[in-house]
Amino acid sequence: MSKTVFYTSIDIGSRYIKGLVLGKRDQEWEALAFSSVKSRGLDEGEIKDAIAFKESVNTLLKELEEQLQKSLRSDFVISFSSVSFEREDTVIERDFGEEKRSITLDILSEMQSEALEKLKENGKTPLHIFSKRYLLDDERIVFNPLDMKASKITIEYTSIVVPLKVYEMFYNFLQDTVKSPFQLKSSLVSTAEGVLTTPEKDRGVVVVNLGYNFTGLIAYKNGVPIKISYVPVGMKHVIKDVSAVLDTSFEESERLIITHGNAVYSDLKEEEIQYRGLDGNTIKTTTAKKLSVIIHARLREIMSKSKKFFREVEAKIIEEGEIGIPGGVVLTGGGAKIPRINELATEVFKSPVRTGCYANSDRPSIINADEVASDPSFAAAFGNVFAVSENPYEETPVRNENPLRKIFRLFKELME
């Protein structure tokens, strides 16, 4: 009888932390638990209050365990948001001399390890690595070199890296909170991996991740990321605008956006809505149209700033023979849930636009995941799992655990 493999995924955002536990038996996937809690102690992608941050993560872990009705016993994949992510290309060669050798998994694994070490020498920590191109004997380009024979193999890698100090900040704080081995990933890349289809990634697509502090932008072509960037404006600024204009709290502004917001206002009626003032007691009124005018203005700014990135990617893809960007724009993140935002984006980008969520990708269907699979804010939580489960060469790093703590933890698990 086959064994179930468990994956626990956490996506750390500036506004919310999302958690997801998936189980895989043979080829069948099932969602076993999922939750979302308010994120505390983070600001602009940095940990500002360690105690509050750890409490947020612990709250999420506790909610997941309550749903499972047992402790979490699996390796973890944890993604986080940062404007420090960069894309780097690395080339690794292996020359076997005059004798042609069969390309094995061990050779590919060794070459990838060499690429990872090369990146680390520059003070960068790689979070994702993609095989961009395989070249055999300096003349044959292949999609999969396994079992092929060659006297020389050259692999071009594309990696998403982050400065070592940023990596260590999150790793060290999480090490004492998450009592299991874990990998760290880029939320932006995991989001894209959780929402895109294979044809989109192959022919060209731009993902616009509408996050809280900033908007993340990533483009794919030939199956790998070709460009990443950020717009320093996010949903926080939309909430701030509503709060300032309507003279209310951040929490009430967020509620108004969720329950009555709209990205397009031109054809809305002057429907009256009520909300609470700054004191939390005074009842005020506005209209759905006025609220949407405020929302629209800031969202249009985000789209307009993102258009420069879109045009740069479009120019690069046109050079390779495509007409425009075949996959268009995929909107994801919490901001993608605002009604009619696709309509606004289509007007700005002059390109096809769709909402990016796991349910709209071409990934395997997952039992009991309907609620979160259609939620764009859970995209990275899904993408985390497939970022590790589909990479045959990358190993999960085991943290250095105090021997006494390890003995105590094992004893505790046996007693449960």
Automatic annotation (TrEMBL):
One of its GO terms (cellular component) is cytoplasmic side of plasma membrane. Residues 7-195 form the SHS2 domain. Coiled coil: none annotated. Keywords: Cell cycle, Cell division. It comes from the Bacteria. The keyword Oxidoreductase does not apply. This is Cell division protein FtsA. It comes from Thermotoga petrophila (strain ATCC BAA-489 / DSM 13996 / JCM 10882 / RKU-10).
